[in-house]
Amino acid sequence: xxxxxxxLSGAGKSTLADGLAAKLKAEGVQxxxxxxxxxxxxxxxxxxxxxxxxxxxxxxxGAIALLAARSGxxxxxxxxxxxxxxREAIRGLCQARDVAxxxxxxxxxxxxxxxxxxxxxxxxxxxxxxxxxxxxxxxxEPPLHPELVIPTHELTIEEAVRRLHSGVKNLx
Length: 172
Description:
Blueprint: E1 2-6, H1 13-26, E2 32-35, H2 36-42, H3 51-70, E3 75-78, H4 84-96, E4 101-106, H5 110-116, H6 121-126, E5 148-150, H7 157-171
Parallel strand pairs: 1-3, 1-4, 2-3, 4-5
Helix pairs in contact: 1-7, 3-4
């Protein structure tokens, strides 16, 4: 199974992924965590932030998750993954290989994400220091039919993790 969390920077994807992983571990499931930042530090150091490089980073995340899923390992992927076409390509590969794919839209308004700005990225993007930043001058396409929607601006972290966990369990 692949649980794919998508949303803007600062939406809460990594926080939710960590919370879900803790709940799954408590149930005896050891998930593989694939985080966009970690992936760029470890496997995608050769990639920049051009459209092509972003697509390749997402492709690599999907490939790792698919390999793990085919070995019976649940993957929790938390990546901005801004384009529907990229997420749908991974969904299509999962369907072709009979692997469950759960798309989770971490639905958080841009204003909330900018207010959180845990890494100071929005401030840098607004100052022109980070070109083509998703949500500012590069598009983010919300999923049209995600399996789950988690509005982190309306929920506490605990409520959001509980909603994600119960939603995943209901879709298994």
